[in-house]
Amino acid sequence: MTLILVGLLLWAAVHFIPSLAPDLKTSLKNRLGEGGYMGLFSLALVAALVLMVFGWRSVEQPTHYYTLPLWTRDAGMGLILVAMILFMASKPPTRIRRIIRHPQLTGLIVWALAHLMMNGDNRSVLLFSGLAVWGALEILLINRREGEWVKPEAPSWGKEIVVVLIGCVAYAIFAFAHPWLAGVAVF
């Protein structure tokens, strides 16, 4: 559990630097250059992910806090599909981005909440609630830092459909790779 917590804290700390410590970001960029800063940033995020994954897998006898009704599993899987589509809609201009300012972070929060619907053990509660809280805080900090939201132009419906299809393909890939990524079969 300690590894999960350290991974979450490292993940949050690295992401919060631009909003909470902009002078540190500037100092690191001046010292390391743009590429060096991005490399260090990426390395810290990979380390955080590794800590979270190994921390989650290292809990041999998880304690179960709750078990939700069986139908929540299907609802959770549907929410994960929504999360994948939101995640894929974060960079290209989409109608989704005209409705949701931060589709990637919103997708992460939906993903985390879906996992909390399906997993009531201590390691899952720590990991997924931690990521959901981080995502919500990150949205608030980015909004404060960036100010007023300028909505992007709406793309053609064809581009919108492509984003949704890519989200569906990503969902299928992660669902089938889940046993190797997380050690838990989805189907």
From TrEMBL:
Membrane-spanning intervals of the chain: 6-24, 36-56, 68-87, 124-141, 161-181
Entry keyword annotation includes RNA-binding: no
Superkingdom of this protein's organism: Bacteria
Stored InterPro entries: NnrU_dom
Major subcellular site: membrane
Domain NnrU: 4-185
A Pfam family of this chain: NnrU
Keywords: Membrane, Transmembrane, Transmembrane helix
Lipid bilayer topology: Multi-pass membrane protein
UniProt subcellular location: Membrane
One Gene Ontology CC term in the entry: membrane
This protein's name: NnrU protein
Native organism: Halioglobus japonicus
